[in-house]
Design brief:
Chain lengths: ~400, ~400
C-alpha cells in the first residue's frame, strides 16, 4: 500500500476522475497540465513515441515550413484529396496506390474498416487497444480471445488458428506488436495465419508499433504491406504517431484491397488530411528524410533494448517481453497501480499509464513508454525509489498489523 | 468562342484533365501550381474565404503559437477528445455541450450524419454542394428538388414544404446560403419549414456560409443553432473554412440532438481534431478574438456588397442574387465556361470555379469568390477585359461564318 498526504490524496482522486472521463484511454498531457496545475510533469512516459524522430521531423519542419513562410499556406489552403496523398506514398511503400487509404490518424482507419467491413463476427485478442471492439457496430458479435498470463500475453499461433476456424468470424484483429504488452508475432507466423484462414474476410493487422520490432540484428523494418497483393483479405493499419511522435498532426494509412479503398472513397473521406499531415506524408516518402529517419529508428531501438534489460533487473516488478517502445509491468502484490502511477506523477513528475481498464489483464499493471536515454535513466531511478518507498511502507504496515 | 494559341490550348486540356481527376470538386491550388508550372496564379477566386479573418487568425497564431514555441506541442501531443473540445465551444455558441459534435472539417460531419442517420429517403435541392448526395449510402433513395432558373435558383418555401409532404422523406438538406449560387432563405422561413415538417427525422441545415448573410443593416450574425433545443430534428452543419479561411486546419462542428451526438461518439470520432484545430476552436470561443473577428466579418460583408453591385454592371454576364461570399455568374451565349475560366487563369492568373459539373444548372456558369478589395478590383477589370476579348472574337467568328 502506498500512503499519501491529504494534499496528495486529493491529486490521486482528481487523477482517477480524469481517467474515468477519458473513457478507455488516458487523459491527454494538456488536460493533466490544466487540471493538475500543482503537479510538475517532467516526463510523459504514457506517450508512445520515438523522441529522436520527433526531433528530426521538427528540424525539417522548421527549415522547410516555418523559415520559408509556408505555414500560412498549410493552414489556409485545402489539402489534397485522399487519392492524391495516397499516390505520393505508393513508390516509397512499394504498394500500388489503389491499395492505400489515407486516414486522419490510424483511429479513423480502424473506425472506417470496422464500420464498413466487419458485418457479422469479430475476433479480438485481449488485452488490446480498445477501439477495435468499441467501434464494432450494434448487431455484430465480438468474441474475445484471451491471451494467457502464463504465455506472457503472447499469441499462441496454432491455438489461435484453430480457435478462429471453430468460430468462423468474418473479421479478425491482430495488433503487432500488441498494445499494451508489446508482444510480437513474427511475419512468418502471421503469414501462416493468412494461409490457414482464407475464409476470414478481413484479417486486420495493426502495425502501428512495427517500426520498433525486428527479427535479426540488422534491425530491418518489418511489415506485411507487401503481402497485400497476395492476400486479398489482409488489411494493414498504420499510425504515424508512434514512430514519429506527431500525434497532434493526425496521420495514418491503411493498406487494403483496391475495392475496399474504392468503397470507402465513394462514400466519404475526401479531405480528411490537414495541411500539416499532407506535408508530413510527402516528407515521409522522401529519400533524404527516410535515410535520416532510419538512423534514429535504430538508435531508439537499441536504447529501448537497454532500457528494458535494466528494468528487468529492478526487484519486485515483473516486466513482460516487448518488441514495442513500451513495456507492460506487473506491480508487486499489495500495490494498486493507480496509487503507484499517482506516486510517480506527484513525487517524480513521471506520467505513466494505469492499465486497470484493460479487459483481459489480471493483476496490477502499468504501461511504461521508453523515452530518450536521459529520461529513461530518470524513469529507472524513480521507479526503483518509488518501489523501495512502497515496499518499506508495506513492511511497516505489516508490522503494525 | 474563345480562341487559344496552341500553347494555351495545352493548358486548357491539362486544366480539364485536373478537373476530371478532382471529381465533383475543384483541383486544389497546390495541385494547379504543381501541374501548371507555367501559369502564374495571382488570385485564388475559387477559394471561398474571408481573407481579413485569415489575417486575424494568423496574427494570433504567430503571437501565441509560433513566437512562444508552442508549435511543437501542437504537433507532438494528442489533441483533446471530441467532447472536451465541444465543451470549450458551448458557452460561446450558447448551445448545450451535449449537442455539439466536433468534425475534421464540415465534410466529416456531413459524412457522419448522412451515413448514420439518412436511412430511407433524402431530398436535396439542386444545384448544391455535391457531397450531400454523393455520400448517401447504397439503398437510400435520393430525390432532387430542382431549384428553378426563373426563380434565380432561390428556394420557393411553400412549394418546397408541399413537395416534402408529398414525398415523406426521413432527411432533407438545406444549404443556407446555398452553394454555388449564394441564395439565402431567411431564418423565419426555415423556422416555418421546421414547424410544418416535424415528421422529417433530420432537417439538415448547412450554415457554412451564414457568416456572410444578414437580415438587416446591423449585419448581426444569423444562425439556427439556438433552435436546436426546440426542434429535435434540426441538424446544423458548420464549416470554419469559409469564415476564417483555414481549410488546411480542417475544423467544423455540428449542432444536433444529444442522442445523435451520443450515437456518433459511442462508435468513433474520438481524436478527429488535430492540434491546430484544437487551438483554432479555443481561440474562436475567446471573447477578445470574437470581438476583433466581428469587425472583419462586417468589413468583408460590406466589400462583398460593393463587389457584387459592380459585377452586376458588367455587360454581357448575368449575376445571380447572393448572400454568400461568392456569386454564380452565367456567361453570354457562345462562351464555354471551361474556356472562360482557362482564359482568366492563363492571361490574368485568376483561378475561378467552372460549374459544368453542378447537376441542376442549365447554361454556362462560373462561381466567383469575393477576395480582398484590391484583388476584387483586379478581378473586375480582368473579367471585363476577358469578356471584351471573347465578345470581339465572337463577333469576328460570326463575320467569318
Amino acid at each position: 500500500m502506498i500512503n499519501f498526504t491529504p494534499a496528495e490524496r486529493q491529486i490521486v482522486l482528481q487523477l482517477e476522475r480524469l481517467k474515468r472521463q477519458a473513457g478507455s484511454h488516458s487523459p491527454s498531457i494538456f488536460t493533466l497540465r490544466q487540471k493538475l496545475a500543482d503537479v510538475d510533469i517532467k516526463v510523459d512516459a504514457c506517450f508512445l513515441s520515438n523522441p529522436y524522430a520527433t526531433e528530426l521531423f521538427i528540424e525539417y519542419f522548421n527549415r522547410e515550413i516555418l523559415e520559408t513562410g509556408r505555414m500560412r499556406d498549410l493552414m489556409e489552403c485545402y489539402p489534397s484529396q485522399n487519392r492524391v496523398i495516397a499516390e505520393t506514398l505508393a513508390d516509397f511503400l512499394r504498394v500500388d496506390r489503389r491499395r492505400i487509404f489515407i486516414g486522419n490518424g490510424a483511429i479513423e482507419i480502424i473506425q472506417a474498416v470496422i464500420h464498413n467491413f466487419a458485418r457479422r463476427k469479430v475476433i479480438i485478442n485481449i488485452p488490446t487497444f480498445s477501439s477495435y471492439y468499441e467501434y464494432v457496430k450494434p448487431g455484430v458479435e465480438v468474441v474475445f480471445n484471451l491471451l494467457k498470463k502464463e504465455d506472457h500475453y503472447e499469441l499462441d499461433v496454432d491455438e489461435y488458428i484453430s480457435m478462429v476456424k471453430s468460430h468462423q468470424p468474418d473479421t479478425i484483429v491482430l495488433i503487432n506488436p500488441n498494445n499494451p504488452n508489446g508482444a510480437y508475432t513474427k511475419v512468418s507466423a502471421i503469414q501462416r495465419i493468412l494461409e490457414e484462414l482464407p475464409f476470414v474476410e478481413q484479417v486486420i493487422v495493426d502495425e502501428s508499433f512495427i517500426h520498433f520490432a525486428y527479427e535479426d540484428e540488422s534491425y530491418g523494418l518489418m511489415s506485411l504491406s507487401h503481402l497485400a497483393s497476395r492476400y486479398p483479405n489482409l488489411v494493414v493499419v498504420k499510425s504515424m504517431s508512434k514512430d514519429f511522435g506527431v500525434a497532434g498532426i493526425r496521420a495514418g494509412y491503411g493498406i487494403m484491397s483496391p475495392d475496399r479503398v474504392e468503397t470507402l472513397l465513394a462514400n466519404g473521406y475526401l479531405w480528411n488530411s490537414n495541411g500539416l499531415a499532407e506535408y508530413f506524408f510527402r516528407l515521409y516518402a522522401r529519400e533524404d528524410f527516410a535515410r535520416r529517419y532510419e538512423e534514429v529508428r535504430i538508435k531508439y531501438i537499441l536504447e529501448n533494448l537497454q532500457f528494458i534489460s535494466r528494468l528487468k533487473q529492478v526487484e519486485g516488478i515483473k516486466v513482460y517481453p516487448s518488441m514495442a517502445n513500451f513495456v507492460l509491468i506487473e506491480l508487486p502484490a499489495g500495490i494498486r497501480s493507480a496509487d503507484f502511477v499517482a506516486k510517480l506523477l506527484i513525487t517524480y513528475g513521471i506520467y505513466v499509464r494505469v492499465c486497470d481498464d484493460k479487459i483481459g489483464l489480471e493483476g496490477q499493471f502499468i504501461r511504461l513508454a521508453s523515452r530518450s536515454s536521459i529520461e529513461n535513466d530518470y524513469i529507472l531511478q524513480s521507479i526503483s525509489a518509488c518501489l523501495d518507498f512502497s515496499l518499506v511502507k508495506e513492511l511497516e504496515n505489516e508490522q503494525v498489523d
